[in-house]
Each structure stands twice: as structure tokens, then as C-alpha cells.
Amino acid sequence: MTTNMIPVRLRCEYLDNPSGIDAPQPRLNWQLEAVSPTQRSLKQTAYQILVSSSEAGLEEKQGDLWDSGKVLSNQSSHIVYAGSALTSGQQCWWRVRVWDAQDEVSDFSPSASWEMGLLTGADWQGKWIGLQASKPAYDAIDVEPMGKLPGLQASPYLRTTTNLPQAVRKARLYVTAKGVYEVHINGQRVGDAYFAPGWTDYHQRIQYQTYDVTAQLQQGENSIAAILGTGWYCGHVGFWIDGQGNNYQHYGTDPRLLLQLHIEYNDGSSQTIVSDDSWQGALGPIVFSDFLAGETYDARHELDGWDLPTRATTDRWQPVLVEELNPGIRIVAEPDQPIRVTQTLTPQTITEVSPGIFVYDMGQNMVGWVRLQVEGSAGTRVQLRFAEMLNPDGSIYTTNLRSARQTDSYILKGQGQEVFEPHFTFHGFRYVELSGYPGQPTLEALTGLVTHSDTPPTGSFECSNLMVNQLQKNIVWGQRGNFISVPTDCPQRDERLGWMGDAQIFVHTACYNMDVAAFFTKWMRDVVDAQAPDGGFPDVAPRVALKTNGAPAWGDAGIIVPWTIYQMYGDTRILEEHYEAMVRWLDYLHAANPELLWKNKRNNDYGDWLSIEADTPKELLGTAYFGYDALLMSRIARALGRDADAEKYQRLFTAIGEAFTRAYVDEEGYISGGTQTCYVVALQMQLLPEHLRPLAARHLVKEIEKKNGHLSTGFVGVGYLCPVLTNSGYSEVAFQLLNNETFPSWGYSIKHGATTIWERWDGWTTDKGFQNPAMNSFNHYSLGSVGQWLFQYVAGINTDPEQPGYQHIQLRPYPGDDLSYVKAEFMSIHGKIASAWQKDGSTLTFTVTIPANTTATIALPATNNAQIFEGTVPVADADGVAFVQEEEERMLFKIGSGTYCFRVYAS
Ligand code: BGC
């Protein structure tokens, strides 16, 4: 006998068959799939996991590393490996089988695997290597069209060769850089990651990547070669704080490579090849490659055969410079998905805006670069400049880029068809200006390559309003363009920093759109690395360019982000890992504000950033976030079983709420400052006594009415605005804000052609044109934090907050005004949840699917005298559906796994 469900999608630490895991006890995860889609209420009652050190052993159903035995549990996520201790490089194959409610057991799943990384500092035998001296680029070559930007440097090319005596059975390459790297073996690029090893505080922690390179090696002569870029390590990142141009070399002056290749031969012997003084280095065609400046590539200086076992040029190769490893800097496995090219875009149009100057429209504000195809004579210089918008005359608008030049130049070698892609730079753009092109360029001359941290898509949302569908697209494009190793504010100007305020307001939306669990696992380590000795979390993580401690709503990301990851994925480890850091942050706030009111303002207090004619008092916002932190900490402590702490923080939260109310709220529920955001934060953060909440909600609605039915919230208020309205019984007002196309609204930017979320409501207006170019990005995700409301309220897909991680799901859709249907899907950690509703005269249809081994409470908008059918039968007779209770205007049912179609006929 087998069960009606099978375990699928086995993952380890959120990743598919990962290599380079350094969690000593990795967590395992699977989903359950019904064998037949019509089956309902499937439950796992027990599981057995086998982990084996060989694939063959696993075939034999032996778990020599771990056999969990039959464990009575419905848990299928975050199962902590509890077998024998794992060693560096250990390969683990695993499978799982499950028992259902009738105690029938399934077949074992197909096998999945993970592989441990290098677990100790002592595993690293290689040394940092680089060029003896790299000269500034403009000494080496004329970059006059760019002007002289300090801090640019040519990319080092590094190589070694080695003779392998026998055929290779298994080979793993461990590699990292101070800077960014690209490795080639025998002329072939290794892996498909870009900008590896990613951005961390290189003074404390540097990530490495692990690659299976077995197939790339051969018996006999082999070459291992690499190119380095400056990246975040010594290239330009952030802004010119003092106009002095010191926004480069944040961590060091020159890029370095650290590499280790472990080879196992067929006869069982092994060999390790490392970066050391046997390598050679040279300058090559990359004149410079910098995130903000762009890349200049002179193909005439290519090093023939630089990555092949036999090289043609010899004279330019010099011995490398070698540096010892610093034991104070941890070298850790990259825990999240690498940055990859995930899509290519073909330009839509090309216009010659002045003689020889062509502007391409990619049709989408995107992040990445373009591939150029060109043919011409040696020395011809083709230039590409990138911009988000156009000037009225059709030329590209670059003033909002500030000092970021976003310019790539390619100098031809003159050998027929040439193809150029930059190596270590990315741009935020919709338009590309091409100049210096020999001949008449065609659309095919350029291809857009979309690049970002490759977090798997998990959400889709569609409805009857095309503008809202475009809004959802813009939100996703904003997320793609800004999740580049860290969640950045913007991808184009001289900033691109891990702004905490932006991340905390958008994280929930981000979790619906893509699987960002591993991404935020990584970034939370950046946040905690950036915590100051006094407990202050930063404004930006990694803490660079701007060294201040975090302002209200910015520093609080240190608590809000792990809390949200816990809600969305049921992850308690992220809470455990950072608990002490969160406590220190809260202590720091408390010590600075003993009267529980945020009196100690700091000059980086941003308030409700970029609100529109509505200044929320900063002291009030600071107090609200202080209270919210205490509330979330009490819940976090409770989730971790730290009950005494939970009580303590609950008391602190209550006391802050009382102080808040005394200081800022009158007996009619008016809040000083009176902005929409004042009411939104007070309600969202539960700071008001119960009797004042409906009054405050009413004032919020009045404030919206005063603005002719428009919002005025900035980064801080915007994410909670529609949820608070909906929770307070004013969903129709939230839908009105959603549907608006007049200024200020989401619809306004869309009406004017936005394909991403703008930084400011008034980034461009019909009256005033462009806002101040000193701060006017057209790809900033914060105002897109309304996405959470679309999934969680409009489509109604939510976890049970008491049981985070979607094993018990709450479905509470809002069939809003002006929409005739909504269709949403969300790939939760337990599998796909789908929710759709449709209006047909007075009939409402709800079609929902929840995965095997989950349950849901569905709250249907209906009164108790409405007729409700499920499929073809009255709901009372439906299989897998149990009535729970009636609430105001809602009928609640509990459902087991499966697909259901409810019809509500209004009486
Ligand atoms: C960034 C923001 C950030 C803000 C702080 C801006 O320059 O682009 O996204 O949150 O500064 O006020």
C-alpha cells in the first residue's frame, strides 16, 4: 500500500541540491503532492529521512549518516539534520518517505543532495593573489570621453597551469575575491554567477562559492584563470558624501583572488591546487570595470589564449603578488542564490536623435547591461550610455544619475563580427544611447541582459484592472532590479546601498513575489555585522558610505525583517541566530529614551520619507517604531520559548503604547501631526487603547477625504496604509486609493508610462516635469510595498499568525470595488496556494487550492442567510469542509488540502 501523496521538491537550507553548506546542522524541507488532484484533506502523520554518504548507499535505502526512523510528526519544513557530524566537503544524499492519516506509507522520494563547504579556517590553504601593481586606468589609456574619474583601475588577469596525472573522478572549486571575480578553466567560464562572491563587510566576512568542475578538467595540461573586478570592495559604491569623490575603496585598494581546487582521482588519490606564488598576472583589455562608472574594454589588448593551457603571449605575464589570509576575517559559504542573468530583452525601437547618436528603448526599466554586436576597423570606439528616462527632445536624461556614469565603451580589434558584454558593472536603464557605431545600427545590435540575485519567483497576481496588473509588474521589476546580493534602494545613481528603511517596508511584499528566505538569511548577517558596539543597527547594511546608526523605521529592519521571514517561512533559526543582536538594539533604544518617548532625535531622522505634503512628527514616528520593536520582540521571544523575555517586552510595549497615547493622542482619537501616516502607524503598531482605535481609523479616512481621496504617505506609512484601512473596516477606501490614477497615486506613474516603481510620487508630473535630479530615481521599490496588500488582503492569502509558515493558512479575500475578478498564486514553503474570486451578478465564486499537509480557514464574504455551494453540493455536504463560525459579513469554514470552488449566492 502507498499513500495518496508523495514527497517532492526536497531542499536543504532553502536551496535545491546545494553545494557549499556551512550550517553544521542543515535544515531539510519537502513538499507533499497529492497523487490525484481531486483528493482532499491529505495529511502527513509521520516521516522518515535517510541521509547517506553515497548515492549508491541511498539506493539501498541505507542512511549511514542519519536514519531518523519513523518520526510521528506533520512537520515537513525546517527539519534539523540530526545525524553524524558532517565534515568539510562531505556529500550527503537524502530521501524521505511519509505516512498519511491512515498510517499508510509512501514510497521514498527520489534522492536529493547537499554538500558541505569548507567548515574551518584551516581548510584554506590558498593565499590571496593579485597584481604587483595595477595602474590607474587613465594612465594606461585615454578615457577622455569619460573625463578623469579617480579610483578606476584596470582588471587583473591571473592564470596558472597544472598537469593532472590521471582522469578526474570529482573536482570542486572553492573561490572568492576581495572584489568580484570570473574564473575560467581550460577556456571555459566556471558557473553562471555574476559579481561573486557578493557584497558583505569584507573587513569581517567574505563569502566563497563552490563549483563542481569535474567535467571541465582533463588528464594532462589544464589552465585555471581568473579576472578580477573592483566591485563593492574597492570600486565606486554609494555617494560622494562631501563632493570630494571618495566613494570608492571602501574596504581596500586592489582586488585579490583566493582559490582552491580539490581534485579526486579515479584511484582514490587526491590533489589540491591553490592560488599562490606559482600564478602569473597581467593587465588585459578591461581598462576599467566599475559598478557606477561602467566598463571600458579595449579589444586590441586582449591576451590571446589567456585562459587556455597553452598561451600565446608570454611577455606581459608577471609573477603575482601574494598575501597571507587574515584569520580575523571569516571566509564563509554564500548562503543564498547567486546573481545571474535571468532574462534577455530585445529593444523595441531605435531612434537617431542627432547625427550618429542612436537611442534604443528596451521597453522596460531594467537592471543589468547590454550585449553589443559590431563590426568595424580596429581602434573604433563605440560608446553606450544608459538612462531611465528621456529629455523632451528624445535624448537620454542622465542628470538623476548624479556622479554615476553608467557608460560602457568598446574599442574594436577589427576582426570581423565582435561581441561585447561588460564584466563587472551593471546599470539601471530603459534607454541606451549608442554612439560611435560604425555603420547603421539595427535593433539586433543590442540585447538587454536582466541581472539580479536569482531568487525563485513564487507569486503571481492578476485582476480585471489592467493598471493594477501593471502595478504588480512594476513591483516585481523593482524587486528584481534592486535585489543584488543585498536589497538596495536603487540600481542606477551613485547610491545602490542596502537601505534598511526601504527593506523593512518592502520585505513582506518581496516574500510574496519571490522566495527570498535565503537572500534575507544572508542580508540579516550583513545587518548584524553592521551593528555598532552601542547596539545601534545601521541605516544601510553593509555599513558603508553612511556610517550613522539607523533612524526610526530604518534601524528597526533588524527586528522587522527576521520577524517577517519567520511569518512567511516559519523560520525560527533566523530569530535564534539574531536574538542577542535584536535585544541589544532594543536595549540601545530604551537606554536612549528612558521616558519611552523618542525624544533624542538624531540628525539622520528621515521621518516619513518622501511623503507628499504631510509631515509626520519625527518624535512620534520614533516612538511608534520603538513600541513596534517591543511588540515584535515579545512575539519573537514567545516563538523561541523565552517566556520571561516575552513578558518583559510585552510590558515594555504596553508602557510605550501608554506613553504614546498620553503624549500624542487626545480623547477623541486625534493624533498630533494628524497625517495619514500618524494614524497608520498608531493602528498598525497597536499603540492605541481599544476604544480609540475606531475613532483613529475614522480620522484616517477623513484625512484621505481631505486630500480628495488621495494618499499622502511616504516610505514609512505606505506599506501599512491599505492593510490598516482594510483591518479597520474601510476596505472600500483602500480600493479607491488602489484605483486612483490622479496625483498622487500608484496609477499616476503608470498612466505616465512607469514600468517600475518610482522613488517619489512626484518623480515626474505634468505640471512640473522631473523632480529635483539630486534625488529622483525611477526604480525604487519602497512605494511598491502595497504588493503585500494585494496578495494578503485582495486575494486573501495569509498565514495563520499563530502558526507562521503557511501550514495553517488563512484565506480571507476582499472582492473589492471596481474589480470583477482576481487570480493569485503563491508558492509557499509547503507548496502552491491559489486563490481566485469572480463576481457574476450577485454570485461570488471563490476557487482556492491549498497543498497537501496543510489546512486553511477560509472566511467567505457572506451572511448566514446566503446560499453557499461548494462544487455542486451545498457547503454543509462538501467533502473536506467544516463550518467554523460566523463573523460580521463572513462565514468561516475549515478546509483540508485540495481544490475547492465555493459559490456564494446573495439572498
Ligand atoms: C535613499 C532611500 C533611503 C533614504 C533615507 C535615499 O537617498 O535612496 O531609499 O531610504 O535616502 O532617507
UniProtKB/TrEMBL annotation:
Its EC number is 3.2.1.40. Transmembrane segments: none annotated. The keyword Hydrolase applies. Residues 167-343 form the Bacterial alpha-L-rhamnosidase N-terminal domain. It is an enzyme of class 3 (hydrolase). InterPro entries: 6-hairpin_glycosidase_sf, 6hp_glycosidase-like_sf, Alpha_rhamnosid, Bac_rhamnosid6H, Bac_rhamnosid_C, Bac_rhamnosid_N, Ig-like_fold, Rhamnosid_concanavalin. The keyword Hydrolase applies. This is alpha-L-rhamnosidase. It comes from Dictyobacter formicarum.
